[in-house]
Amino acid sequence: MPVYDQNYRSWKGRLVPYPRAWWVIAKTHIRLRWKRGVIALLILAAFPFLMKALQILAMARLEDYDLLAQFARDLEIDARFFRDFLQGQSFWFILMVILTGAGLIANDHKYKANQLYFSKPMTYWDYMAGKFMTVGFYGGIITIAPALLLFGMQLVLAENSNFIKSFFWIPFAILGFGLIALLIFGCVMLVLSALVSARSAGIFFFAFLIFPDIIRAILSNVPEIGLISIGANVKQVGAVIFGLSRPYDYSAWLAGGALLIIFLLCLAILRWRIRPSEVVT
Amino acid sequence: MNGAGKSSLIKGLLGLVPLKEGSATIMGKDICEKSRQVRQMIGYMPEDDCLIPGLTGVELVRYAGELVGMPRADAMQRAHDVLFAVGLGEARYRNVESYSSGMKQRVKLAQALVHHPKLLFLDEPTSGMDPKGRQEMIELIQYISSKFDISIILATHILADVERTCDYVVMIHEGRALVQDRVDDLRGEYSHTMTIRVEGDQNKFQEALVKKGCTILGEERQLLDVKLPKNGNEQLILTTVVEVGVVLRKLTPSIQTLEEVFVKRVRDEHAGL
Fold it and tell me: Which of A6, A15, A261, B14 falls between 20 and 30 A from A221, CA-CA?
């Protein structure tokens, strides 16, 4: 007797009327991308966090750790400390975005998996949110999460309430800066993934970040040229969020506007490129 | 026929491609207004690969189940059951990229069946399968449609598969419905048409047939297409052969398969009949 004669049974369970498809997509892809490369990157990205944690510890317990006193004396735990930590993570962050985001949509196009998704009761926004959450999770795990942990550590080790009184807004700044970076870099990565193959998407993403910075460096006498660089714009906005002086000589509003335009452009391209199916005529 | 619009029709009904005009309802629900509810009631096995690299067979089917709204535990349990049902029990922990064409067809069927839909769309389910696999797939489709409360819409250009699995057929040619009828009725419609080849006096034989109420539909290379009268059968032909004194070389029903019905209808269409 064929196997199927014994095994196929009807299912009498109840379906959730509006399934949270974005969550199903996100958790599946987060798990799928949990591979050796990502783990190695997470370990490497943890070193700056450990150094900063050591710094906080040394600052808090100077008298207990005389050897570390010299190392920590010139440092101060303030807004700049957290902003610098986030900016310092940018290299690992970019690698992580490429590693986890390049194939997210490109592979669906390659294997024509869009039909599988859109024949289910889900929307375009479910699909996009699920894909973005995957990049967001891994990007956030090496930027926002450790920065918040450092803040918490400083809070616990602080001798008095001066720190929390002065810097209660830092967690919001970390979240704001981190989310802006995630949103912009994540969307650009997804756009490239939707336009070209996974391998090319990674290469283009690097090029997209590096070339504007090279042009900016060459034409350094024209400050506004920085507007073409996503990295420079994010740094500019980040400085405002953390209440620090701007790193470049152009308006932070202009930088914010440029990021908004890039974001809207990304949404438009994604909307155009992600279709449930192609009809061959 | 390839390019006739079968897959496009299914994709239109699923909302995968927008309808330019007209409307449609599936199980009483408008496909545009209640698209999510409609898609929850149906299962779709696409023609294309539609795989997610990195997932094993069981993970892919569970994923499909969760996307459609099944609880996680149920989706997992059901994924195992359905993969066994489609004959992929042993291969369910292998990555889907490593599957053969036939196995990919089976896993696509499994992901469409995982939530036990009321209506199942199968787009070229036997494409790329070897004869044995094709046979098993057809048997499985027959089994599911006959034993369970699942209606199946099969899109294929292999009309032999349709004859074996379907009760009703819509033949699409160049984007238009050419024929729509019950499969049995369609074959019955042509059961009174015979192809005959005789040696001897052709004209006398044809005249004798016409006198007995037969209609000569056509003659090509000594082959006569004859439509018998309502109550007539092969015996009428044999009697006429004896009476006229010709030698009978061939006597078969003109159209035996859906494929021949389709070809005839297309020819009639082109001839403006």
Answer: A261
Put simply, the answer to whether A120 touches B82 (Cβ < 8 Å) is no
Q: What is the dihedral of CA B232, B233, B238, B241, to 10 degrees?
A: 40
Residue A189 to residue B184: CA distance in whole angstroms = 55
Do residues B230 and B214 lie in contact, with contact meaning Cβ atoms separated by under 8 Å?
no
Half-sphere exposure (Cβ direction) of A229: Cα atoms closer than 13 Å: 25
B140–A4 C-beta distance less than 8 A: yes
CB contact under 8 A, B84 and A4: yes
Three-class DSSP category at B133: helix
- Measured between alpha carbons, how far is B215 from B267 in angstroms, rounded to an integer? 19
| Beta pairing partners, B179 | B171
Q: Least CA distance to B114: which residue of chain A?
A: A11
Structure ipTM:
0.86
User: What count of residues does chain B have?
Assistant: 273
Q: Hey, which residues 10-39 in chain B have their CB within 8 Å of chain A?
A: 11, 14-17, 35-37, 39
Which domains, and CATH codes, for chain B? 6-166 (3.40.50.300), 191-254 (3.30.70.100)
Q: Identify whether A11 is part of a domain.
A: no
Is the residue at A50 inside a domain? yes
- A170 is a domain residue: yes
Q: Which residue type occupies B263?
A: V
pLDDT digits (tens, 9 = 90+) for A244-264: 988 888 899 999 999 999 999
Give me the phi and psi of B156, to 5 degrees please: -160, 155
| Residue A70 in this model has a pLDDT that exceeds 80 | no
Give the closest residue to B211 by CA, choosing from B240, B231, B190. B240
- Please give the average per-residue pLDDT across B132-145, as a whole number: 86
Ramachandran assignment for B60, one of left (phi > 0), alpha (psi -120 to 50 degrees), beta (any other): alpha
Per-residue model confidence as pLDDT tens digits over B147-174: 788 899 999 888 888 888 888 888 888 7
Residues A19, B67: C-beta atoms closer than 8 Å = yes
| Pairing assessment for the beta strands B176-182 and B168-173 based on DSSP bridges | antiparallel
Domain extent, residue A168, equals 19-273
Kindly report the nearest CA distance between residue A36 and chain B, in angstroms: 14
What domain count does chain A have?
1
* Residue A278 belongs to some domain of the structure: no
At residue A178, the pLDDT reads 95
